[in-house]
Amino acid sequence: MIRFENVTKVYDPNARPALDAVNLEIDRGEFTFLVGASGSGKSTFLRLILKEDRATSGSVYVAGQNVANISSWRVPKLRRGIGVVFQDFRLLPQKSVFANVAFAMQVIGKSRSIIRETVPEVLKTVGLEGKERRMPHELSGGEQQRVAIARAVVNRPGILLADEPTGNLDPITSMGIMGVLDKINQNGTTVVMATHDDDIVNEMRKRVVELRNGVVVRDEARALYTSMIPVVGESRRMKDASDAEIDRAQGVQQ
Amino acid sequence: MRLAFILGEIGSGLRRNLSMVISVVLVTFVSLTFVGAAGMLQMQINQMKGYWYDKVQVAIFLCNDSSTSTGCASGAVTKEQQDNLAKMLDSPTVKQYITDYQFESQADAFKHFKEQFSNSPIVDSVTQDQLPSSFRINMKDPQKYQIISETFSSQAGVETVSDQRQVLERIFEWMNGASVAAMVVAGVMIFCAVLLITTTIRLSAFSRRRETGIMRLVGASKTVIQLPFILEGVIAAVVGAVLASGTLWLVAQFWLNGDLSKQFLNTPFISSAQVLVIAPVLIALGGGLAGISSLLTLRRYLKV
Fold it and tell me: CA of A156: which chain B residue's CA is closest?
């Protein structure tokens, strides 16, 4: 469903690349955690999938298509196949819950009758039945994130990207959100979630891809937030190198 | 659905940015009024040229008792000199240039003078003797005035040869100058209008960046995202253009064809219907400029 072939992304030629020769494949229907410190390349990874940025070298495939070959007028079509959820929800404050979700359908030209049929269904999936007419500021953080998820999946995308969706929420609310994401994943949607939240990763026991300084240092099925496997060989060398760099950076800060 | 959605977006955009939208309307209104005024002046010049050039004549004024020019040293024109001039006008060398001529006697001249200045007290102080008699010549080609002038101005009994066209030419030059000035003002105002539209669209895009950000993410097409902004600018400019057209029509209807045509009875003014020819040009100009400047602004400030 998503394949990175030797992908490098350089923002500033004088700094280290944000992503450095990343090879990764995520299958249809998989649930993948993307973990790593801030600046490790998680957001860049997601942006490349959406074609918000262009890879400096290497190829990104989404649903079998090399995104570099998608012309700019067909990018919207690519994005219709991808739902996105953010840490800060990004709801429209002057629109009701229903209108926020319906907005995603209106702008791609869905008919009124389909919208009226689909939106309540999706709101039910995320557990917001009966809250259609509430305004975003009347909802708790967890509920707002559910609205955002509903909006992301209302057009039935094959992929759901979540960029730290629980970053602003307490642990219990976060688990509720994870339940929703899991349910969406059960329905066949590929979910990629970037997160810092070790409790959640440990609880879910899904595939974990760890990035460090733009390099994939770990890719484990049914894994924990921190690795259980001793780091050896080439990986060991890379880990030491990056640890040394982190130490240096911290030293500079102090 | 999509159309209703776009219309709704336009409506909310116009409401949110009302003061800016009104300023866009006013600036395009003023600038296009100047453009239209320049156009109307040109139409007026053409109209007057068409009307007057058929009527203007070359006049050979003959000496009278009070003439002072050197050609009149021997006093008023004699019957002999007058016949001689008429013969010359009938001769083939001159005849090829003119369609016909009339003789205007002092009595005729006095009559015309009284008609022309009927409201003025000057009539009472002028006598028939003071006015010159003249040959009025209609030219085949008014440009050939020089030939008549050269042939006749040195003849005995001729005071002066005058081309009425030159008087008109001066008026037309003045009107042309006015229309150029109007175009210059219009140019400056259009520049202002474009800058203002650009700023308005930028503000509008900024105040709706949440919406457009989400539209982008869920895969709305470029058209759906950008069209409301572009139409917002175009609608404001077209309203300005319609106001400008309306103003020009009112000017033609009630000023040119009202007050002015009563004061200048034998001046042909352009009709208000003719002004309506300018209206579509103004609307297209306003809409086009707004569309292009919004599009260019969006390319910079609204990533899709």
Answer: B218
Query: Residue B210 and residue A79: Cβ atoms within 8 Å?
Result: no
Judged by CB atoms closer than 8 Å, whether chains meet at A109 and B224 is answered as: yes
C-alpha distance from B217 to closest chain A C-alpha (Å): 6
Amino acid at A204: M
Which token pair is B37? 């005024």
- Tell me the per-residue pLDDT of A186-219, one tens digit each, with 9 for 90 and over: 999 999 999 988 889 999 999 999 999 999 999 9
Q: Provide, as residue numbers in chain A, all residues whose Cβ is less than 8 Å from the Cβ of B2.
A: 106, 109
| Helix residue ranges per DSSP H, chain B | 2-16, 18-53, 79-90, 92-95, 106-116, 122-125, 145-152, 164-207, 209-217, 222-250, 261-263, 272-301
Is the model's pTM score more than 0.90?
A: no
The mean pLDDT value for A41-59 works out to: 93
Q: Is the per-residue pLDDT at A229 higher than 70?
A: no
Q: Where does the pLDDT of residue B208 fall: very low under 50, low under 70, confident under 90, or very high at 90 and above?
A: confident
- B residues 223-242 closer than 8 Å to A (CB): 224-225
